[in-house]
Amino acid sequence: MHEEAAEVKAKLLVEIEKDRSSINEQIGRIKAELDAPAVPEDDDSRTQEQRYRKRALEYFLQKNEAAAAEIDEYIKVQLENASLSLAIQWRPEGEKMFGLGSLMGLRPPSLDDALTYSYRFRNRKTRNFDPDLLEEMDFRFLSLPVPTYYENIDQIRAYYKDREVSDDYYQVADWYIEDSIIPRFLEAGRNDIHVAGKGDLVEHIVERFKERDYISLSFILPPFIEGTIHGICQTLGLKESMSERAALNQLLKTIQKHTDLIGMEYLLFIMPIRRNRIAHGRDLYASYREVAVSFMLDLDLLLVLAKRSDLPLNGLLDVLRQPTIKKVKKIFTMGIEQHHARLESECRALGQWINTDEFWSQLDKQLTQTDVESKETHRFVSKLEYHSVLFGDDDVASQIKARGKEFLRTLPAARQRLLEDSEKRARMLESLKARLDRHD
Predict the structure, then answer these.
(1) Is the same domain home to 372 and 318?
(2) pTM to 2 decimals?
(3) Whether 191 and 302 share a structural domain
(4) Domain residues for 91?
(5) Strand blocks (E) in 360-422
(6) Within this chain, do residues 189 and 80 fall inside the same structural domain, yes or no?
(7) 178 and 297: one domain?
(8) Residue finishing a domain among 291, 308, 325
């Protein structure tokens, strides 16, 4: 087995060295461009394209260096175990022991299955490590069904390249905006927590698009997109005074700490260039139609971002709209006080459920001995009493307090009940073991 594992390890190292070489080549290329004499040398005198290129290079340099460090850590921590595990699964007798794969028609494990570091899964959209592959078209039409996307994206790319001499690209983009983006955009204007406050503006944007008023759209969409991003940052704890002073890419970096959105690097390094040209009245180097359609397509990413479950406000909203005892018990670790003003109606609806016999009955049924001993539910109910005003008016709050106090008085009896149940199960288990021993 040792020889087989060593052979697998050698194969893995060949693949690892290919990835290391690719990363080192990329690092060298990025450093060479960063270290090249700048024209102009004064950073403030460079065009915004040059400034954003520099930011992108610095970002991707850090990303590649992190990827190299991750591979070093993989070699140190995981390589030996991965080699042994793969060797076992590749053995004929291993196939018989673990051979569900061959029986069920699943493919056997490969080297790629064992190489679990991020760089191994690189691609243009989700794990790109090359600043020269950061192209706008890589982040367009992503809401198409996967088969449809891959069947048509090459043709759409060709249309995009010919957009100055042919109308084909704009016909596809218009269809996609009308069929995929606008319905979701209107729905977000009614119900999405990050967009709903701008419902009138959402409807106006849709109207302007239907009228093909590209000039108006070019100037309306950038502040709408940036304002939504500002709002999301405030839900992440960034103070309004800070978000007002922060540049767009700084706001996006704040969001990036919380969610790994496909297209975040596009939003960081490509979209702001177009936004800045509009905002500062500079030459667009493009028609208003192209600019407006590009911003409309940016809404596709914005709508996905606004719904990300890993944004804290969205996680809390999920608990409030689809509450279970298990989820509600975590509510005071999710910033409910911070977000209460945005979620007051949902909090009141939860308060109605809390003030039912069903809620307290389920809370009691889901008690465990570990829970009671660690006082997890005790702490939750105590906080529920203290923050009862978050869940309704004074009458509702007082009812929650009363129910909470009554529940806490039952916990010693629940502790005794759970202890007795545990002892009863232990006796039954010992009795079963004794019977099995006598049978042997």
Answers:
(1) yes
(2) 0.80
(3) yes
(4) 1-122
(5) none
(6) no
(7) yes
(8) 308
Q: What are phi and psi of 127, to 5 degrees?
A: -140, 65
How many Å apart are CA 99 and CA 118, to the nearest integer? 28
pLDDT, position 1? 56
Per the domain annotation, does 127 fall within a domain? no
Decide: 400 and 388 in contact? Cβ < 8 Å.
yes
Of 175, 435, 146, 181, nearest in space to 300 by CA: 181
User: 404, 382 in Cβ contact below 8 A?
Assistant: yes
pLDDT for 103: 42
Return the closest-CA partner of residue 214 out of 304, 284, 136, 142.
284
Sign of CA dihedral 118, 124, 130, 135: negative
- The last residue of a domain, from among 283, 308, 333: 308
Degrees to nearest 5, angle at CA 131 with 130 and 132: 90
Phi and psi at residue 123, to the nearest 5°: -160, 175
The answer to whether residues 144 and 282 belong to one domain is yes
- For 203, 321, 362, 400, the CA distances from 392, given in Å and listed in that order, are 32, 16, 21, 9
Q: Does residue 154 lie in a domain region?
A: yes
| DSSP category for residue 106 | P
Give the pLDDT score at 282: 72
The CA distance from 35 to 61, in Å, is 12
Task: Spell 212-250 as b/e; 16+ CB within 10 A means b.
Answer: eebebbbebbbebbbebbbbbbbbbebeeeebeebebbe
Closest CA to 373 of 344, 405, 415: 415
Provide the number of structural domains found in the chain. Answer: 3
Question: Based on the domain organization, do 415 and 388 belong to the same domain?
Answer: yes
Mean pLDDT (the chain) is 88
Residue 59 placed within a domain: yes
> Minimum mean pLDDT among 79-93, 115-129, 234-248: which range?
234-248
Cα–Cα distance for residue pair 198/203, rounded to 1 Å: 9
Token pair 């460090």: residue: 69
Nearest-angstrom CA–CA distance, 26 and 156: 29
In a domain, 419, yes or no: yes
300: tokens are 């596709």
